[in-house]
Specification:
The chain has 118 residues and is an all-alpha fold. The protein is built from 6 helices and no strands. The protein starts with a helix and ends in a 19-residue tail after the last helix.
Length: 118
């Protein structure tokens, strides 16, 4: 069980580090553009993985159903793809770190212990 917790904490630290790197990139991009610009998850994945020309024509929010009628639900991947990557990665990293936290430890008090002589 400790190996699973350690792995979750390690993975959480790596995901949190990716979120911090993306946040620094967002900050630099926002300063250069003189307005707030956040890189979405779709844009981040498009930069990380080169797309085929056939996939590039069908990709995007209009093709995924986000702007469909009110009765149609948007696919979860389309809604998550529009979210800022730095925020999502940071929250996911913090969640993984919290899930990997060791359980069963009570609150430790660092108050000095009383000696038996008192």
């Amino acid at each position: 069980m400790r190996l699973v917790a350690w792995t979750l904490r390690l993975l959480g630290c790596l995901v949190l580090a990716v979120g911090v790197v993306l946040a620094v990139g967002d900050a630099a991009r926002s300063i250069a553009a003189d307005r707030l610009t956040l890189l979405s998850i779709d844009e981040t994945l498009a930069m990380a993985m080169p797309a085929n020309p056939a996939e590039a024509a069908t990709a995007g929010p209009a093709a995924s159903g986000v702007f469909g009628a009110a009765s149609e639900g948007a696919p979860l991947s389309a809604v998550l793809g529009l979210q800022p990557a730095s925020v999502v990665a940071g929250l996911a990293g913090l969640l993984l770190i919290a899930l990997g936290r060791p359980q069963g430890r009570g609150r430790r008090s660092y108050a000095p212990r009383r000696s038996k002589a008192e």
